Amino acid sequence: MAVEQPGSLSRRDFLRVVGGVTGASLLYLLLRPDKREFGSVRPPGALPGAGFEAQCIRCGKCLIACDQNAITLNLEGLPQINGLSGWCNFSLECIAACPSGALQPIDPKTTVEIGIAVIDENRCIAWNWPGCRLCYEKCLGIQKAVWLDEEYRPHVDESLCTGCAACVFVCPQSAAAGQSKKYGKAVSLKAT
Fold first, then answer.
1. Alpha-carbon gap, residue 32 to 110, rounded angstroms
2. 97 in a domain, yes or no?
3. Which of 88, 108, 115, 186 is the most exposed place for a label (fewest CB within 10 A)?
4. For 176-189, what is the mean pLDDT?
5. Which pLDDT band, with edges at 50, 70 and 90, does 70 fall under?
């Protein structure tokens, strides 16, 4: 029988440590957050194209000013609206809070369009089973851009949609069975 040195690991303890590290690594690989970006649009008043990225100082003041929690930061630290945490009511507080001019003042009396909602028919509950009308009901009180066909399946009228993300916010459908809704819903936004 071998004599153990003080402070050394026994074979059993070594295997426990290796097993624990291996198990923790495997759990991390399986459960780590998905770094893919969910469909998003820029906040109201955002400069077009690369001008927004160049002008924005990534201070987060627009995020703090947003009373609807609609604005989040993407992986580059730029403000975005994706509908996962809230939706845009076009209060324009984000523009007032922007110190860099990346968000320019806009006329609050005009209809602002920041994007278009897109329904993924493969994920949408109403397209696969009867019953869900949440996006339609939410939009009824806002813009009336979501309408239902004769089978009660939702469609988006792009001429009316502002990209506010209210339909995304209320959508109950996750990206896939067992996955968090944080990384996908049946409705997403695309920039116009």
1. 42
2. yes
3. 108
4. 66
5. very high
Task: Measure CA of the first residue to CA of the last residue in the chain; give whole Å.
Answer: 75
Residue 17 forms part of a structural domain? no
Count of other CB atoms within 10 angstroms of residue 86: 19
Predicted model pTM = 0.75
Widest Cα–Cα separation across the chain: 87
Closest by Cα among 151, 65, 68, 166 to 114:
166
Phi, then psi, of 107 in degrees rounded to 5: -75, 115
- Which pLDDT score is estimated for 116? 96
- Does a structural domain hold residue 117? yes
Measured between alpha carbons, how far is 92 from 54 in angstroms, rounded to an integer? 21
**What integer pLDDT is reported at residue 27 of this predicted model?**
53
Amino acid making up residue 70: A
**pLDDT of 12-48, one tens digit each?**
877 787 777 676 665 555 444 444 457 899 999 999 9
188 burial type by CB count under 10 A (0-12 exposed, 13-18 middle, 19+ buried): buried
Number of Cβ atoms within 10 Å of the Cβ of 76: 10
Task: Report the distance separating Cα 59 and Cα 42, nearest Å.
Answer: 15
Quote the domain boundaries for residue 61: 50-190
Structure tokens at 166: 């209210």
Nearest in space to 152 (alpha carbons), one of 178, 134, 179: 134
